[in-house]
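Reopening this one. Same input as before:
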Amino acid sequence: MLKSKFKFIILFALLSFSTASEALNLLEDYDVIVAGGGTGGISAAIQAARMGVNVLVVEPTEFLGGQATAAGVSQMDDLSGQESGLYHELMNNVEEYYSARGKSIFTPYWEIPNRGFEPHIGHKILMNMAKGEDAPDILFNSEIIAVNTEKIISSNENGLNEISRINSVIIKTPEGKKNITCKILIDATEYGDIIPMTGAEYRVGNSVSPSINPKAMIQDITWTAIIRKYPEGVPEHLKPKNPLPGYDQAKWNYENYVTKNGSDFKGVYPVELPVNFVTHNAYRALPDSFLPGNYDADKLNWHLITKTGANWGNDYPGQYKWRNKYGLPAAYIEDKNLRKRIERDALIKTLHFIYYIQNELSENWSVDENEYNKLPEAAQDLPEEWKNIARHFPPVPYVRECRRIIGEHVLTSEELYNNSLSYKNGNKNLEISDAIAIGCYILDLHHSDDGNDMEKDLGEKAEYIHSHSPKGNFQVPLSILIPKNVDGFIVAEKNLSMSRLVASALRLQPITMMTGQAAGALAALSVIDEINPSEIKAVKVQKALLDSEVDLSLCMYSDVPKRHKYYKAIQLSNLYKLIEPSEYPAKNSDNITYVNEDAKIQGRFGVDEILTGTEAQEISEKFEKDFNVHVEINEGLTKGEAAEILMKAMLK
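Same output, byte for byte:
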């Protein structure tokens, strides 16, 4: 036992990468500044830095990873297992870390293969990913408080246009304010707080700036907590003696979700409520680095779980409602004073759950002392006995909905749904040509989901939550990362140009990492080519992402595995519909990294098939018509060789 414990201490020390307290020598000028080091922000920063530009990340907490770490939602909401790029790198590192310790990461959501990790481990791994010869600078405990712009005249197909151009930001740091210039600014904050500083148009709820309706409703937030079992009994300092004001209402609320004699999860939805405590813990179970033993999400192991996330019955306002309506008002995003009050109430709602667990359920569970160790601002005025618990809460809440820019294109639920039907039910290629990421999730609004809450100008309706929910993997277009009329500004995280329904499917950790990585590639190319992000050809961003092992097409072929020499060219051929495959797949890819032996399901590109003279001529003529570029595709080439030639022509 002692030997094993000593070995663990050594291994943990080896993983103790640099911390937020390390000094940072700030430059006076950066190519790219990223506001927010969350899932989208750190992905953007790593990608841009690896492409050779200098990058600064400005993060208000001491954590990288945002919703997945600083907000404590470290169970990956990934319905397909589709992963590539930096998200794959993160999860591969997570699995290696826990495997070396005899722990499974397949712990949450009641069944394998859903995955999770402890927030502090996610942060440390992201810190390690952000190191190396080409690495971003990271400024913790800091935030951008102002953006400086200048007016310029831009010309496009519609004539001359006055736009704003970003030139510098003012950053509030622990050492004081700093004015730093940049070529590209990326808003990857959890609230979209940088957007209004730039003058870009945006949405909150169903209203549009500058006339944001403060009563427009958005989704609930949740102040999560990482809780764990104390087999020898909960330490006295983690057992508050007195409930906080409002506990009676909270007790009523939690009795609707989890009770001593609640039901088991039976593998069907909606879940029969209330559930028992074991089922509750299996929902968002996490691996436990600090107790011996191992478990996964197999039902036989649920009783072994010793660590989980409190993120179920504690949505705020949830059943409490806000002024007799479900959800929160847009004023929560727009008014920082109201934001503070709401977040304090959300934190207290979750503190009530700790008391409920110990006093109503009689369980030896409390907050995990190994997670976090700093009192959140929202908890500063709590009684001392509650501060002992709150200091191990995440520093920020989980924010599901924020400001969203208005770009040249606004992605709607109908477009997302149609795209997800690619290769299904007789459909062929319905892929998005400027796709820069693949995701998979349902349309999932936590309240504020009736017809009055939808954007009528976008044609969205409440019934689309069900009728337009994606039927599999979907793609995200490059165009929704770029705002109108602001030069040098890109968005990531949940701040994209999309409807509320689309945002409810694009807000999860895997897809925010993927869209963030694309934002970083776009930013780097804009710096390198010295042109505005809106002028960068989508194919150049796509090639940079493919070079970084990001998958972009919804289609997989039995004859083109991931490491095939023409894989990238054929991905682009799918997106731009350049060459007709020999056989379409019967469904879009559940996981494009996996090659199934069933060629009918996967489809076949015919990569080694020789083109006839007629086929070669048709490909050449179609390419010239679509791209106004003449390329000679000759008889006798293979389809794979032709795809490679076309890719090179597109990149010129």
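So the earlier flakiness isn't reproducible anymore. For the record, The mean pLDDT is 93.
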